[in-house]
């Protein structure tokens, strides 16, 4: 495939913003659009071709059930703060959990986890390029062992991110970005 200059992609990257999860409403991506997003998500660097990730789609009733079970878990612990944080999960019409599942391999686990993070990025960028709002979150239920059981994770799996998608009710706000020049150090040997 020939490489060509794509200024529209550069413009997209220069202006991309995450939408607040609490502003995402129906409709979300259709089944066909989600299928396209999954194909795009799989086009990430994957040293060793291990596919060290999988996707769990949560929408409509299953997403509501997942959130309800997480809320019951938080409230059983009398953790109302954790229960309140579930609004970000409950509000958008679609959530894709990107699950990192490092494989036993000569490829370092770190590289495999980075590949899973790249899947998150492609889903985020793909949904945004389709005109949807998208947000990449983790929060407590990405790390809590009981929450991971509810999600159905297997031993050795971790949540790389929950990618929330929907139609934004308001334009995403710009945020302060780091000064690129302050982050670059020329190597001098």
Structural class by helix and strand composition: alpha+beta
- Average pLDDT confidence is 96
Question: Proportion of β residues?
Answer: 15-25%
Shape assignment: globular
- Please give the radius of gyration in angstroms: 18 Å
- Which runs of at least 5 residues are low in confidence (pLDDT < 50)? none
H/E series, N to C? HEHEHHHEHEHE
User: What is the β-strand count?
Assistant: 5
Helix content bin: 25-40%
Describe the largest sheet.
5 strands, antiparallel
The protein's oligomeric status is single chain
Number of helices: 7
Kindly, what is the distance between the CA atoms of the first and last residues, rounded to a whole number of angstroms? Answer: 37 Å
What's the layout of helices and strands?
Blueprint: H1 7-15, E1 24-25, H2 31-41, E2 53-59, H3 60-76, H4 80-84, H5 87-90, E3 94-100, H6 109-129, E4 133-137, H7 145-151, E5 158-168
Antiparallel strand pairs: 1-5, 2-3, 3-5, 4-5
Helix pairs in contact: 2-6, 3-7
Question: How would you describe this structure to a colleague?
Answer:
Helix 2 (31-41) packs antiparallel against helix 6 (109-129) and helix 3 packs antiparallel against helix 7. Strands 1, 2, 3, 4 and 5 form a five-stranded antiparallel β-sheet that branches. The mean pLDDT is 96. The protein is globular. With 189 residues, the protein is α+β, with helices and mostly antiparallel strands. The N and C termini lie far apart (37 Å). It is 39% helix and 17% strand.
């Amino acid at each position: 495939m020939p490489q060509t200059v794509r200024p529209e992609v550069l413009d997209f990257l220069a202006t991309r913003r995450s939408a607040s999860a609490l502003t995402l409403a129906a409709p979300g991506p259709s089944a066909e659009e989600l299928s396209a997003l999954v194909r795009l998500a799989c086009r990430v660097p994957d040293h060793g071709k291990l596919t060290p990730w999988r996707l769990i789609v949560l929408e409509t009733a299953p997403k509501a059930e997942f959130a309800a079970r997480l809320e019951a878990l938080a409230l059983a612990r009398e953790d109302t703060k954790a229960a309140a944080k579930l609004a970000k999960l409950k509000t958008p019409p679609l959530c894709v959990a990107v699950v990192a599942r490092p494989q036993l391999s000569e490829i370092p686990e770190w590289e495999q986890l980075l590949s899973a993070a790249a899947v998150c990025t492609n889903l985020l960028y793909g949904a945004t390029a389709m005109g949807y709002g998208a947000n990449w979150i983790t929060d407590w239920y990405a790390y809590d062992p009981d929450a991971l059981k509810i999600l159905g994770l297997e031993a050795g799996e971790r949540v790389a991110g929950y990618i929330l998608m929907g139609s934004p009710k308001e334009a995403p706000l710009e945020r302060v970005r780091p000064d690129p020049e302050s982050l670059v150090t020329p190597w001098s040997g």
